[in-house]
Amino acid sequence: MEILDVAFHRASLATPHGQTKPERDRRRAELKIVRAGATVVRHLRLESRRFLKPPLTSFERTLVIERFGEGTLDRALARVRRAEERIRGLQHEAERSTRRLHGPEMLGDAVRSYYGRLSSFVREVDPDLLRLREVDRFLAGRPKVNPDQPTLVVAGFPNVGKSSLVGRLSTAHPKVADYPFTTLSIALGHADVGFDRLQVVDTPGVLGRARRANPAEAEAEAAVRGAATVVVFLLDPTGTGGHTLEEQEQLLERWRTELPNLPILPVETKSDLLRRETDRLQVSSVTGEGVAELQRRIRELVKPKGELPPMEEALVESPPEIEDLPTPPPKRGRRARSG
Q1: Taking Cα atoms as reference points, which of 246, 254, 253, 249 lies closest to residue 210?
Q2: Which CATH number applies to 151-316?
Q3: Using CA of residue 213, residue 260, residue 151, residue 57, what is the dihedral sign?
Q4: pTM strictly above 0.90
Q5: Residue 307 has pLDDT above 60, yes or no
């Protein structure tokens, strides 16, 4: 592993000072032990630090669990942490043993024995280090969702118009196409709600297969469960997306049952293609029909902290009265000097 290569190279550069050769030999052996161990521990901590400082948000942890399985990340971190402790103990033991040894051969054997045990500890956690890097790359490819800001998640079956609507609601510019599973991972945009910034998350399509979900579907489920303040659930009654309205209703009801405290707003899309009698809001990302009403309903559910007054109220509001200020006395001009 590259960690061992770096550690052994750094240890080989040890150049101790000492008045006699035996003293320099012993110090060189001690320096090699200390440098190799410290370098390995430092690199192990760097591999773990991404997940500890700052700790993962609830959404990031949900993403990791949906993608890699429950406990996978925690087990890898625990094994790496245990390896650090064992390496520090091995280092202290090797340092003490060198103080009782004499001669370059005995000291060299002690260093080689230490290197061998150090290498075995690192190789034991090699799969865990690879897993940590895999999780790190996965999270690096996902947008950062701020847990302190309200988050709107737009979800539903594939090809129901989620990305087009997100483009209408926020600053995001998601890829839009007429075939399912165009969106393969979450995308993030922002919109102003009062004085607050609303995070708007576009998600991949979900088919409602809780136990047979592909990675894209699992990511959408993670966004709904781990990031959402409000969910806009899109339903396509036209059938152009390849799925019946009944199938979409089943997923909606499952989420409502599993997440009773999460506000879920059902919205029917593609109203430019089909208008039908329903109590649900109908919108069209093509014509913009219903988008303003959808924004109003989202605003009611999000309940922004710094609310702006309605435009009509701001226009008719009378300006505050200004108190009359006392008139300042006139300024006296300077007298011209004579002569």
Answers
A1: 254
A2: 3.40.50.300
A3: negative
A4: no
A5: no
